[in-house]
Amino acid sequence: MAYRHPDELPTGDPALLPPDAVIAVDGPAGSGKSSTARALAERFELLYIDTGAMYRALTHAALSSGINPGDEAALVALLAPASLELLPSRGETTVLWCGNDVSRAIRTPQVEAAVSQVSTHAEVRRLMVQRQQTMGRRGGVVMEGRDIGSVVFPLATAKIHLSASPEARADRRWRQFRDRGVEVDRDGLVRELADRDRQDSERAVSPLQISPDAFVIDCSDLDFAQQIELCARACLVNPALDAALDLDIKRARRELPPRYRLVYGIFDTVTRFFGMTEYGSGGHPIPRGCIVSVNHISLWDPALVAGTFRRGPIHTLAKAELFHPAWLGGRLFRWMDAIPIRRKGYDRNAFREAAARLAEGEHLMIFPEGTRQAIGEPGQVRSGLGILVQETRAPVVPIFLRGAYGKRIGGSVESPLEVWRGPLLRWHGLDDLLGTVDRRVASDRIGLLCRSAWCELQARSFQMNPVTEFEKALGDKQLRQFSARQAKLFGT
Ligand code: DC
Description:
The protein is an alpha/beta fold. It has helices spanning 33-44, 51-64, 72-79, 109-118, 122-136, 148-152, 166-179, 186-202, 224-243, 249-254, 258-273, 301-309, 328-335, 348-359, 383-392, 430-434, 439-464, 469-490, and strands at residues 22-26, 47-50, 84-87, 94-97, 100-101, 141-145, 158-163, 215-218, 277-279, 291-294, 314-319, 339-341, 363-366, 396-402, 404-405, 408-409, 418-421. The chain has a 7-stranded mixed sheet, sandwiched between helices. A 5-stranded parallel sheet has the order 2-6-1-7-8. The radius of gyration is 24 Å and the shape is globular. The model has no long low-confidence stretch (mean pLDDT 88). It binds 2'-deoxycytidine-5'-monophosphate.
């Protein structure tokens, strides 16, 4: 359900917001993103970044040089070497394109009419997203746009999706033009907004859609003060939920049933012996009944995750072939309460069992790519994760693994052995998303979000320890082998 009034959300202590918080504000044109994001930045003392201004600056530069907004190659050639700076200032952001102040020039109806087309190109978006991630990776920002929560910062502390009726949005846009002394026809503006919505939400790459973990805030009937109050409270919900969780990891470990303690202890010792490092887990509490969603690169993966997690029994959804009773590993899988799953088609029994375990408060580890992937590029997430999330609403802990390739279990200078854990994904916006798309598309959105989360963790890992020659060469080799296996297993 969309949130419409501040009383619908609990208040939270603003001090709960971490200093490296990232607040993502997405929504259609005219929904009040800019004023909201700016006000939130002021309230929480964060830096405000307007990503729409970046697409506008490119559009303005293209129009000034006679480049067609449909010509992707020319736009990329224009953008790649250009310097593009957003300087925080009172009122609107100052936008510098190659050192020239274009802050006013990017707000004309001509730019308005062409910018949506410019932003549909995949390579343009890739370059823009890269710049935006660089600007915000250290945190302390409020970033507004269309794909911030879903693609640019999938691990944002808070995600807000603003919505408003088309009339309310057209009115807002009309007033903005009028304040700048530009005369526009209000009816024409309604048609233009509808057109832009369609282009922004139907484009193939990063379309504007509700991120399933965003707070959807409908501001059609809110005054500005109410809107800001509601958004500010939404920013504090995840930190407040985290703060309320039990942090006593030592006790959680003591309370593990003995056989789990034994096996996880062995996993932990062995992986540490091989030089494994954990990131992002220290002190991050986890509620009971989470889905632990892991990228799959080797047969060691369940051991790596179980050895580091140790906050309660973690049951693995694993391919049925691994449960063969004659094999020691098969017995281990049974002993550790793993759930066998057929990889072809939809295994209803496995999903029913998984949902039941989550409802009992156990954790469930899944490898939603369905099979091992080549290193360097997390695979496409299959629909199982989205189905399970829709059935159980269980929060998801994204985990990115690096280094356990083939027979070499890390510890090698050629491939650092790392386990990266992201913050919890909670499904605040799922009902709203389901109001706009069917269950299958919602599953895809959940899968895409999880994959974006891995990619972000991978980017952090590569920033700390750049990808090695060994990894590059092995990744290329695996890509060929694994795509053949993928085709055989799933027909894709
Ligand atoms: O928010 P705005 O109206 O200034 O955005 C201008 C255009 O840029 C809009 O049509 C959509 C596009 N845009 C985008 O595709 N992704 C973003 N993150 C921001 C803006």
